[in-house]
Amino acid sequence: MTDLTSLKISQIRDGLKAGDFTAVELTEKYIAAVQEASELNAYVCQTPDQAIEMAKASDARIAKGKANGQIRALEGVPLGIKDLFATKGVHTQACSHILDGFKPAYNSTVTQNLFSDGAVMLGKLNMDEFAMGSSNETSYYGNVVNPWRRTGSDTKLVPGGSSGGSATAVAANLCAGATATDTGGSIRQPAAFTGTVGIKPTYGRVSRWGVVAFASSLDQAGPIARDVRDAAIMLKSMASYDELDTTSVDRPVPDYESALTGDIKGLRVGIPKEYQVENMPAEIQALWEQGKEWLKARGAEIIDVTLPHTKYALPAYYIVAPAEASSNLARYDGVRYGLRVAGDDIADMYEKTRAEGFGPEVQRRILMGTYVLSAGYYDAYYTKAQKVRSLIKNDFDVAFKDVDVMLTPATPSPAFAPGEITDPVQMYLNDIFTVTVNMAGLPGISVPAGLSADGLPLGLQLIGKAFDEETLFRTAGVIEEDAQFNAKPTKWWA
Amino acid sequence: MSVDQNTVRKIASLSRIRVEEQDLPKLAGELNSILTWIEMLQEVDTDGVKPMTSAVQTKMTMRDDVVNKGGHAEIIVANAPESEDNFFMVPKVIE
């Protein structure tokens, strides 16, 4: 019998319906797989008892549903949930020490949507502290390990970040799919590093209610999944209009799966010349070229476009994101939840609590944000960055008059080793191809398209018009088909 | 623009984060390397450009001004490090 944990969500759906296995059997296999994989450190909290209860409920509903043909979209599908999403009564700490012991009294809208569609929760996934990082080295719960290793090497590699636990868990078959969030590349970069598919939807497509806030004008939740179809199934469930999030947009959620027609004849694909960065590794360049060829062969038209302000996106991001983070994280003061370190007076308590509760990267960003928002610097930094952001958005608006979608590399390199990048600015450069998309509020998808010379996954990114996730899924599906990326990491951890 | 140790001390205090004296030089160095890098924004001509305020144009909606979910003080204080009679407890602030 096939290993149940290797099944995609679409196959689970068919298998459960056909009665090939039960949701409880499937969930038990996953619980065992997670327990064997502690070396990867993907989960910070496992909820096996709750998972079995949810799976039993799924099996009962499937039995009834077979009679009337009504089976929910994610019935019995075991998922991992990033620690950033509020889950009722369960560990929700953004992988920070400062949220020690926090158990919300409610579910985030995203997890509620997934559970209402029948999904089973296996536990909470590791991530960079407050989603600040590109390598999952800033988590209070330690590094996540990428299941992939270089050919012939046993050096451990990072899974990318901040959704590193999500990416590792999906790649190593420790859940069928995972929730993730993306503020500057935190879904797409780890997906690229682990040979998985990750989509950051248009800003406003998915409710942010109950998702621990990092930078509110950039944060957006999305799935990391085994393939494009699974990502489409998950996003359909995660997306909704939500009156509890005033930035969520009231428009119907399309059936993304039906967009996977494979037909891209006449599609206009833009190639932004500014993504041709200096020192781009030859293998990433080659992959990009290959991507163009695949699309061209399917009848798409390749068109050169220009996004002149691309290189300013990352520095502007490192003003806007820390500024918003410094305000959002002001709430962690040792009074209402989480860690409290006693002090001589209330200010002393605040300062000691925040010094002990936040890790170095989070502290650095709060300080940076406080500085750029402080009197005398606000216009020079913050207002300037927001103006640059308007220019970046305008670049896309202009370019999208001539094209339907853009094709770029997802990351400037394959996965690297922990400790290899210590300079903050060098680490930030990991998001060079992804961050523009957040700044403009657009959707972007990362799809695995090949392996590096030393056997590591590489991804291509597609950028779409606002609320045109369907074109992204359709085009990504074509790349997936043509790339025939079937490689899986060797199971060395169990 | 660059920050000196006094500035770092000041922004740490504004941020309510205790920073030990011996850590100030390293932090100032790190912040300066980031500030030097973002300095490149100054070369962008932004005259007459409006600052972006929203990623996607949406109309703000209003809801009725009524209490819709109230009366849950015990749930709200459930995660507090210290609480009493559904109040958050903090060190004394008024002498």
What does this molecule look like?
- The complex is a heterodimer of chains A (494) and B (95).
- With 494 residues, chain A is an alpha/beta fold.
- Helix content of chain A is 37%, strand content 13%.
- Chain A has a domain of 261 residues: Amidase signature (AS) domain (Amidase signature (AS) enzymes), CATH 3.90.1300.10.
- In chain A, strands 1-3-2-4-6-5-10-11-9-7-8 form an eleven-stranded mixed β-sheet, with helices on both faces.
- In chain A, strand 7, helix 8 and strand 8 form a beta-alpha-beta unit.
- In chain A, helix 7 packs antiparallel against helix 15, helix 9 crosses helix 11 and helix 9 crosses helix 12.
- Chain A starts with 8 loop residues before the first helix and ends in an 11-residue tail after the last helix.
- The mean pLDDT of chain A is 96.
- Chain B is mainly alpha-helical and 95 residues long.
- Chain B is 31% helix and 4% strand.
- Chain B contains three helices and two strands; from the N terminus they run αααββ.
- Chain B has a two-stranded antiparallel ribbon.
- In chain B, a hairpin with a 2-residue loop joins strand 1 and strand 2.
- The two termini of chain B are 42 Å apart.
- The mean pLDDT of chain B is 92.
Look at the structure and give the mean pLDDT of chain B.
Answer: 92
Question: How many extended strands of chain B?
Answer: 2
**Strand neighbour order, sheet with most strands of chain A:** 1-3-2-4-6-5-10-11-9-7-8
Secondary structure: helix percent of chain B: 25-40%
The radius of gyration of chain B is 23 Å
- The CATH architecture assignment of the domain at 4-264 in chain A turns out to be Alpha-Beta Complex
Radius of gyration of chain A: 21 Å
The percentage helix of chain A is: 25-40%
Shape, per Cα inertia axes of chain B = flat
Question: How many angstroms separate the termini of chain B?
Answer: 42 Å
Assigned CATH superfamily of the domain at 4-264 in chain A: Amidase signature (AS) domain
Low-confidence stretches of chain A: none
- Biggest beta sheet attributes of chain B: 2 strands, antiparallel
H/E element sequence of chain B = HHHEE
* Oligomeric assembly: heterodimer
What fold name goes in the CATH topology slot of the domain at 4-264 in chain A?
A: Amidase signature (AS) enzymes
What are the low-pLDDT stretches of chain B, counting only 5+ consecutive residues below 50?
Answer: none
Order of helices and strands of chain A: HHEHEHEHEHEEHEHEHHHHEHHEEH
